[in-house]
Design goal:
Elements: H1 5-27, E1 37-43, E2 54-57, E3 60-71, E4 74-84, E5 95-101, E6 105-111, E7 124-125, H2 133-165, H3 168-222, H4 224-243, H5 246-268, H6 273-279, H7 281-303
């Protein structure tokens, strides 16, 4: 039996459409025949969950969403089919929840329980409805937005009242005050900068002064015992001085000073021997001449002893050649006036 070209084209088209459907379902995680490990979860809000969305346990993908469906016209419960990649030991008290993230899309997170009994393929896992990230943020921001709206309303009322109170003259004065305040602020900034420069210049000197003070106090602390001893001695000395007869000592010193003045007066007068000796130049010259003559006599006696000692051992008496001045090598030098 010979097939026409139309029949061949129709058959190829049907095969191509079938392969396309099978490939599309395969890419979405579906297969033509529902085989493998399946779990079911019932949610009141699917949160735009789509087939092939991942299913995680502790961050590890264990499967994907196979389909979402409702029973009849009742949309209060949405049954989600979860296809597992393998037969996992999931405790029966585990809980599934939908995580609707605006960045990574929707997924199902299964929080494993602590039961030793595990779910079988075809069982229904308990679920919980958790608020998504955007919903949580919206719930927290809503009260703040209401408060902000009330605050803005109050601020608008205040501004209206201010505009009512401030006439053009008052506004001009206020602008002048603000301008003057701006100038004063600029001057304060310049003054602060100058003061900062001065402080920076004095920082080194101040630091050195503080170091010297610290060194001084350290030396005081190290010599505390010595200082205590000095103060004790000073206290003892002042105690002895307080007990001493200062007035008697002063009286004796005054009397001694008077006697010394009297003695000095007598020494400076010419009517006594000592005064004459100190004040009379002629007496000094005579004494000096006598001493010089004595030096000559002693030198002559040393050079010509037979002239002054008549002993027969030395022979006849030496006469003549008398010294008229002291010898240069004499140990006794002539006194100078």
């Amino acid at each position: 039996m010979k097939l026409s070209n139309e029949t061949k084209i129709g058959a190829l088209t049907a095969i191509a459409v079938t392969l396309l459907i099978l490939g599309f379902n395969f890419l979405k995680g579906k297969s033509l025949f529902k085989t493998g490990n399946f779990l079911y979860a019932k949610f009141s809000d699917a949160k735009k969950l789509n087939p092939s969305d991942p299913v995680f346990i502790k961050g590890y993908q264990v499967g994907s969403v196979y389909s979402s469906e409702v029973k009849g016209a009742d949309v209060s419960v949405i049954i989600v089919s979860i296809k597992l990649n393998s037969a996992y030991n999931i405790p029966v008290n585990s809980v599934a929840s939908i995580d609707a993230s605006p960045f990574s899309g929707q997924s199902i997170d299964i929080t494993p329980g602590n039961s030793t009994t595990f779910l079988n393929s075809g069982d229904t896992i308990p679920t919980t409805n958790q608020a998504g990230l955007i919903a949580s943020v919206t719930d927290k921001i809503a009260p703040i937005a209401d408060q902000l709206k009330a605050t803005l309303s109050s601020l608008d009322t205040v501004l209206r009242n201010v505009n009512t109170v401030l006439d053009p003259t008052t506004k001009g004065n206020l602008q002048s005050v603000i301008a003057n305040l701006s100038k004063a602020t600029a001057n304060i900034v310049v003054t602060t900068a100058d003061m900062q420069n001065v402080l920076n210049a004095e920082t080194g000197s101040l630091s050195k002064s503080l170091d010297n003070i610290e060194l001084f106090t350290k030396n005081l602390a190290d010599n505390n015992d010595k200082i205590t001893g000095v103060l004790s001695n000073l206290d003892s000395t002042t105690a002895h001085l307080s007990k001493a007869d200062i007035e008697g000592i002063a009286g004796n010193l005054k009397a001694s000073t008077a006697k010394l003045n009297e003695l000095l007066s007598k020494l400076s007068a010419d009517n006594n021997s000592v005064g004459a000796l100190l004040n009379n130049k002629e007496l000094y010259n005579n004494i000096n001449t006598t001493i010089n003559s004595l030096h000559i006599l002693m030198d002559d006696l040393r050079v010509h002893p037979r002239r002054y000692v008549n002993v027969s051992v030395f022979g006849r008496k030496d006469k003549g050649n008398y010294l008229t001045s002291p010898l240069k090598d004499s140990t006794n030098t002539q006194a100078k006036p």
